[in-house]
């Protein structure tokens, strides 16, 4: 249930929560914790800010303020480790892993998938017609084996 609700394991969730709380006391749990929790659910489900008012009774402006604060803290805390370009050691490690997995000289792989688009604008239906006739969006990703890049 937890993984389905937040789209990540409980340990990772608690790690992020603890790091974010330590950096900004805005996210420390208080009596009105819903405004803080909504950030995680909004990111997990890609909800628009006004949808949170309908389902969890949080105003759009509070939701937007919370998401902005959360994103700023996450970038401050994790940018050095996760939002940087690979250095020479990273490239060497990725090449070693690629060689070990049978792909010498390969740093990353490219993949794509078709996501079925349920609530598409009907005027765009022809532009997004998938193989089976229903609209899809193509997600393309370039990643290394552990999703770091």
UniProtKB/TrEMBL annotation:
<dbReference type="Pfam" id="PF04827">
    <property type="entry name" value="Plant_tran"/>
</dbReference>
<protein>
    <submittedName>
        <fullName>Uncharacterized protein</fullName>
    </submittedName>
</protein>
<dbReference type="InterPro" id="IPR006912">
    <property type="entry name" value="Harbinger_derived_prot"/>
</dbReference>
């Amino acid at each position: 249930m937890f993984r389905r609700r937040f789209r990540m394991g409980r340990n990772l969730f608690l790690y992020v929560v603890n790091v974010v709380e330590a950096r900004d006391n805005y996210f420390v749990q208080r009596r009105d914790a819903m405004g803080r929790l909504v950030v995680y659910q909004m990111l997990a489900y890609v909800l628009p800010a006004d949808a949170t008012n309908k389902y969890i009774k949080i105003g759009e402006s509070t939701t937007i303020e919370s998401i902005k604060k959360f994103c700023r803290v996450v970038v401050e805390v994790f940018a050095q480790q996760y939002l940087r370009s690979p250095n020479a050691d990273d490239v060497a490690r990725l090449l070693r892993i690629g060689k070990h997995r049978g792909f010498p000289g390969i740093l990353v792989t490219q993949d794509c998938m078709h996501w079925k688009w349920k609530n598409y604008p009907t005027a765009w239906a022809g532009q997004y017609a998938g193989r089976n006739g229903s609209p899809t969006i193509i997600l393309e990703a370039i990643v290394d084996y552990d999703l770091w890049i």
